[in-house]
Amino acid sequence: MSNEIVKYDPELNTIPLRKFTPVEMNLFFSIVSRMRDKGDETVRFSFDQLKELSAYKPTANNRFIDDIESTYQKILGLRFGRRSKDGLHREFFVMFTEFEINGHADDPYVDIKIYPKAIKLLNELEGWVRYALSEFRDLKSSYAKTMFRLLKQFRTTGYAYFSVADFNELLDVPKSYKSSNINQSVLKPIKEELTPLFRGLTVRKKYGKGRGKPVIGYSFTWKPEKKDANDFSQGQFQDERQKLFNIQHNAELTEQEKWRAIDKVKGLTLGSTEKQALADKQAEHDKKIRDQARKEALAELRKGFGNNA
Description:
Distance between the termini: 78 Å
Oligomer: single chain
Number of strands: 10
Structural class: alpha+beta
């Protein structure tokens, strides 16, 4: 299922996934990927199917059921709605109205049905956000996952801007976070994990006027995708090759950030690429010293032969 596509109305991107863990995000968007164009019919997911779609690590079914239930409880907290221009008419609804988990069945399953007024989020789309489920689920940070979805909404323009208020709300950044916390815990994983997927990715802070020049927004730029570009995997080797190319040719990342990004792409323990790179540099340095010592020794020998002639 490496070529599973997630596609939905952009309105879904405006709803903050508050307190969703990366596992819960994977489960939610795996469900979304298979609910598209199903109208109001009840869609059945076997446990095995949902585990494969979401790349859920094999565990006992009890833990899996707990994670599914936790995901649904948080889905219930997502509030969709409409409001008239004069504000006199307002309506609110949840996305799914039926969510049955049956772990007793011979082939355990989850039955899910979308609420009629939410059908437009996944059916007969006039505009949409689209991306490969595998790229989304392989991201580790919840901040990287959310920004991936948001940037994919502007895939063909290569530019997105978020005010500080929108950025903090959509990414569910804790109110206690200061600038240093955002740099380290939010922006750093976004840059490291999304650079392999967005060629030439840059992140810029926009500063306001006044005391201390506060950050008032964040802009993201990257090489725009072609409108007819597909999201299908080109095979593990080619996909990894492209990701490593994007990392190595990104002028924004520091050397350390590039090493960490490579570790994540290759599934290595963080620090592995840095350790190897430093070892290679040390080996190269030692070789230069040996070569220089050899040259000096040869020069001394030649000098000695010259004096004896």
